[in-house]
């Protein structure tokens, strides 16, 4: 019990130190938001902080996202090389995001684990391409909030552009283009149901 209390106290001290270091970065982001009126300054800070390795980097990212995201908790872990692209992202409790992930607009619920190199794309309508006379980059698009249900696991290098039901598993390398029912194990490109965890 005493060791547990000491460990928690040490974590609290490290978080406070990380918070002190992160305040200038957060201030720069806020100034950039006022000047640019979009998420570019947030994205720049996210890219900058993704470059800090090890445990210190994890704590710096944790504190920055606790300040800047719509929802984020002190018990999340966001590893080296991972970038978050929207301030409206929501991270639940005990979320783990592995190295080199790219996270679009989403709500990641409690106890979700993401392997390395996972991409969560902000839905299937992010880029319009109907007109052949207009470059695709100029056709705009629509961001959709993707929901990753509680206690789910997204395997390495999976690409997700649809909702994942709670307690589901997405196999490594899968591409999810349709909503996944709770308790599912899916895999492949495009991802298909492999098993229901309740069976």
TrEMBL record:
CDD domains: LbH_MAT_like (cd04647). The chain crosses the membrane at residues 12-36. GO terms for molecular function: transferase activity. The keyword Transferase applies. It comes from the Bacteria. It holds the Pfam family Hexapep_2. Keywords: Membrane, Transferase, Transmembrane, Transmembrane helix. This is Hexapeptide repeat of succinyl-transferase. It comes from Desulfuromusa kysingii.
């Amino acid at each position: 019990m005493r060791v547990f209390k000491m460990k928690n106290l040490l974590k609290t001290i490290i978080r406070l130190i990380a918070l002190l270091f992160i305040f200038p970065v957060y201030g720069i982001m806020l100034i950039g938001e006022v000047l640019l009126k979009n998420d570019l300054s947030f994205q720049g800070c996210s890219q900058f902080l993704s470059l800090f390795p090890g445990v210190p980097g994890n704590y710096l990212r944790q504190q920055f996202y606790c300040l800047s995201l719509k929802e984020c908790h002190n018990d999340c872990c966001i590893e080296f090389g991972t970038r978050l692209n929207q301030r409206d992202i929501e991270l639940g409790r005990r979320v783990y995001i592995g190295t080199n992930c790219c996270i679009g607009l989403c709500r990641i619920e409690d106890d979700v684990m993401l392997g390395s190199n996972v991409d969560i794309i902000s839905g299937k309508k992010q880029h319009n391409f109907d007109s052949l006379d207009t470059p695709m980059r100029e056709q705009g698009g629509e961001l959709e909030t993707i929901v990753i249900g509680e206690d789910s696991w997204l395997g390495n290098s999976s690409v997700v552009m649809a909702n994942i039901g709670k307690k589901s598993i997405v196999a490594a390398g899968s591409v999810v283009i349709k909503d996944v029912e709770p308790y599912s194990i899916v895999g492949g490109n495009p991802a298909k149901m492999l098993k229901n965890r309740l069976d």
